[in-house]
Design brief:
It comes from Spirosoma sordidisoli. The protein has 456 residues and is α+β, with helices and mostly antiparallel strands. It is 72% helix and 10% strand. The protein folds into two domains: 158 residues, no CATH class; 166 residues, 2-Layer Sandwich (Heat Shock Protein 90), CATH 3.30.565.
Length: 456
């Protein structure tokens, strides 16, 4: 075996090794890689067979076997462009080497004659091999880069998918939290409405308490008159009976007694009607508002509740005294309102006014002062509107409080003396219930004035 045969054998080993490394057969086709890795057994076996038989033919098979193994490797990796290019690189060289080795054995004279041609063909195939290996190397690099980009994209997709699942979980969790919060808020709203209704009821009951105390005083006067005139009427009847049973009754005296009796009965009827009016007003105030408007004597309503509010406060504090007056527009006539609701507004404004003058009176107690607590209500017709003014000369309010005075639960009274709903409810009754307006003017230390305007 000459050096040329040894070099051919080593060259095929190199080609197989480069094929394994270049095409990464260990990872791509691991089962077939075992045969490529152990190709040197075939190489050694053929060399041994050639030595034993003293024939060169077995060594000629080295190129064909190597070419076949490379070709089959490329077939297994057919989608790989770099593998096909590598096969195109080595195939011409390996085919030429196989063919020329056979020609040298079978046609030695022809091989010698065309030795230069054969060498040129082999040299060209080597150049071809190197050129295509360079191309295959570039394709391999491009493929590796593409695979890396795909792996990066796949990793990004996995990250995006993981992030998507995480966000879906967070959204589901947040949705559950929002649903839970919504249920809690709905429950809180239900409880708040119930509490609000209780507070409104408490405010109404508080105003009813003020009204009841005033009514107790107001109704006492007509009842006293009724009782007194009833007693006098009984005495007159007795005198008439006595005169009637006399032998010679005096007709003139009887007429005078009957006249006095008639006047007493008229007084009883008058004061009874007054007591009935007071009781009727109390019942209207205490019952739930129907929301129905009806023609109402606004002057009588304003005057009635003014007295009731004053006597209600007097029932709590016997030492309190104040002047109150009603300056009423006689031309006002009947105004269509909800009397129960408007009565609550007036009672609330009067109660606050008397409370304000009482507070100022207590503050100035013991000082040299000519202060006289005064509360005044005024009614007037201005164009198509009715205007009600409730003025007091009490403690007044600073500017900072005026902006919040109609807010729910805001109160200037000490804790336990006010719910903070009175003016808020009054504001809603006037603006929403009657389509009117209510505003307040006040100067600290001088007094306060509430102005109500209603459509006439």
């Amino acid at each position: 075996m000459d050096e040329d045969e040894i070099s051919s054998s080593l060259f095929t080993l190199l080609i197989i090794w480069q094929t394994r490394r270049f095409l990464d057969t260990k990872n791509r086709v691991p089962q077939w890689d075992w045969w490529l890795k152990n190709y040197w057994f075939i190489n050694v076996a053929l060399i041994g067979l050639s030595t034993v038989t003293d024939e060169d033919f077995p060594l000629r098979l080295i190129w064909l076997i190597a070419l076949g193994m490379v070709g089959y490797t490329v077939h297994l990796l057919s989608p790989n462009q770099a593998a096909r290019t590598a096969f195109l690189a080595v195939a011409p060289f390996m085919v030429l080497m196989s063919v020329f080795k056979v020609i040298e054995d079978l046609f030695p004279k022809f091989a010698k004659t065309y030795d230069n041609f054969i060498d040129s063909a082999v040299s060209f195939s080597l150049i071809w091999l190197v050129a295509f290996l360079i191309v295959a190397s570039r394709q391999k690099k491009a493929l590796i880069k593409l695979e890396q980009e795909r792996e990066i994209e796949a990793a990004e997709r996995r990250k995006i998918e993981a992030r998507k699942q995480e966000l879906e979980y967070l959204v589901a969790q947040r949705t559950a939290e929002i649903t839970s919060q919504k249920e809690e808020l709905e429950q809180a709203l239900t409880e708040l409405k119930a509490t609000q209704n209780q507070l409104i009821h408490s405010e109404k009951m508080a105003s009813l308490g003020e009204l009841t105390a005033g009514i107790a005083h107001e109704i006492q006067n007509p009842l006293n008159f009724v009782n007194n005139f009833a007693e006098v009427s009984v005495e007159l009847i007795d005198e008439i009976a006595d005169e009637h049973h006399k032998p010679n009754p005096d007709p003139q005296l009887t007429d005078e007694l009957l006249t006095d009796l008639r006047q007493n009965l008229q007084k009883i009827s008058q004061h009874g009607s007054r007591a009935s009016s007071i009781v009727r007003g109390m019942l209207q105030h205490s019952r739930a508002s129907s929301g129905q408007r009806e023609p109402t004597d606004l002057n009588a309503l304003c005057e009635e509740y003014l007295r009731l509010a004053y006597h209600g406060l007097r029932a709590k504090d016997k030492t309190f005294n104040a002047s109150f007056s009603a300056e009423l527009d006689a031309s006002l006539g009947l105004v269509t309102v909800v009397p129960q609701d408007l009565g609550r507004v007036l009672l609330n404004l009067y109660t606050n006014a008397f409370y304000a003058v009482q507070s100022r009176q207590k503050a100035e107690q013991g000082q040299t002062s000519s202060y006289q607590p005064t509360v005044t209500v005024t009614t007037e017709c201005v164009g198509n509107e009715v205007r009600i003014r409730v003025r007091d000369n009490g403690v007044g309010m600073p500017e900072s409080i005026l902006t919040k005075i109609f807010q729910p639960f805001f109160t200037t009274k000490p804790t336990g003396e006010g719910t903070g709903l009175g003016l808020s409810l009054s504001y809603d009754i006037i603006t929403k219930g009657h389509g009117g307006t209510i505003e307040v003017k006040s100067r600290e230390g001088e007094g306060t004035e509430f102005i109500i305007e209603l459509p006439a």
